[in-house]
């Protein structure tokens, strides 16, 4: 099959396929350049977005989750954790797509190809689109389970975009997150996320910076935060010991966790992801104690 060239190139030959994605319009600019953040970085995690089939399903959910995670990393004010590190996050962002208008108009060209190896088909099109997407966000304290703040953001994008993609013949799922990002609806999502990052940062002001004691010995108190979170020697931290967890008997929702202040430590040595502190006053810390900035 001969190569088909629009503003993106789809090459199909000999049962293989290569996709080169070259958007016809420039992607939205990322977060505005700001001075390097030198304050203590709070940990944050991003939960997978909720998106029903009516608003694009898993393609939209995965695309929005990836773009919000990247935006928070590039913002520089937070340490974004994933996987097992989510348990150590001070807060988690839970998002949902609440409005989704892909839009189409102005006519265009659409070309479809045959199957490749019986599994994949090729498709390319160019058309004018105006897209709107709206997201709702909840910032949740991972210690108490309480909602810290809620916010929403709407994004819009209008462009004449060329699209080339590979689809699975059975499920129709699009391959490649970058394809979603480059579509008008993906660009609208990026626009919404840029607006949402500052709202998340505002909510995070109500979350105290914290770290966890990972070990305590005669050589010092080891905490799970270092240069990666802008910790500096001389930082004074209060030591808090978790107590009873109070839950709603009907729903099981965590209402509060009792915390007792037991002392204070001061950071002396900073490594990449670890710091070593000495006890200033109070009882010796134990593994699992919580450290908060004074």
Characterize the structure shown.
The chain has 294 residues and is α+β, with helices and mostly antiparallel strands. It folds into two domains: 4-204, 3-Layer(aba) Sandwich (Rossmann fold), CATH 3.40.50; 210-293, FlgT, C-terminal domain (Thrombin, subunit H), CATH 2.40.10. Helix content is 16%, strand content 48%. The chain contains three helices and 15 strands. Strands 4, 5, 6, 7, 8 and 9 form a six-stranded mixed beta sheet that branches. β1 (4-5) and β2 form a beta hairpin. The longest helix has 21 residues, at 184-204.
Keywords:
single chain, 294 residues, alpha+beta, Rossmann fold, Thrombin, subunit H, 2 domains, six-stranded mixed β-sheet, 15 strands, disordered N terminus
Determine the N-to-C terminus distance.
67 Å
Mean pLDDT: 77
Overall CATH class of the largest domain: Alpha Beta
Extract low-pLDDT stretches: 1-31, 104-112, 114-121, 161-176
Shape: elongated
Total beta strand runs: 15
Helical run tally: 3
Helix content: 10-25%
Element-level helix/strand string: EEEEHEEEEEHHEEEEEE
CATH architecture of the largest domain: 3-Layer(aba) Sandwich
Percentage of β-strand residues: over 45%
């Amino acid at each position: 099959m001969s190569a088909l060239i629009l503003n993106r190139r789809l090459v199909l030959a000999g049962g293989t396929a290569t996709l080169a994605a070259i958007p016809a319009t420039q992607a939205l600019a990322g977060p505005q350049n700001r001075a390097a953040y030198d304050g203590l970085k709070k940990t944050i995690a991003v939960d997978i977005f909720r998106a029903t089939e009516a608003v694009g399903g898993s393609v939209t959910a995965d695309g929005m989750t990836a773009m919000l995670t990247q935006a928070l990393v590039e913002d520089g004010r937070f340490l974004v954790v994933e996987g097992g590190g989510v348990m150590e996050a001070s807060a988690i962002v839970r998002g949902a797509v609440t409005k989704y208008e892909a839009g189409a108009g102005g006519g265009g060209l659409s070309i479809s190809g045959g199957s490749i190896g019986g599994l994949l088909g090729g498709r390319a099109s160019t058309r004018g689109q105006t897209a709107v997407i709206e997201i709702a966000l909840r910032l949740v304290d991972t210690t108490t389970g309480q909602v810290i703040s809620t916010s929403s953001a709407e994004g819009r994008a209008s462009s004449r975009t060329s699209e080339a993609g590979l689809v699975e013949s059975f499920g129709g799922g699009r391959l490649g997150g970058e394809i979603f990002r480059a579509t008008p609806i993906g660009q609208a999502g990026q626009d919404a996320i840029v607006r949402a990052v500052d709202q998340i940062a505002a909510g995070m002001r109500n979350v105290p910076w914290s770290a966890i004691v990972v070990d305590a010995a005669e050589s010092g108190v080891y905490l799970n935060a270092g240069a990666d979170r802008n910790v500096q020697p001389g930082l004074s931290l209060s030591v808090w010991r978790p107590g009873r967890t109070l839950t709603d008997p009907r729903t099981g929702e965590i209402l509060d966790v009792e915390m007792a202040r037991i002392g204070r430590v001061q950071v002396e040595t900073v490594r990449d992801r670890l710091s070593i502190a000495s006890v200033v006053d109070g009882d010796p810390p134990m593994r699992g104690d919580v450290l908060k900035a004074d």
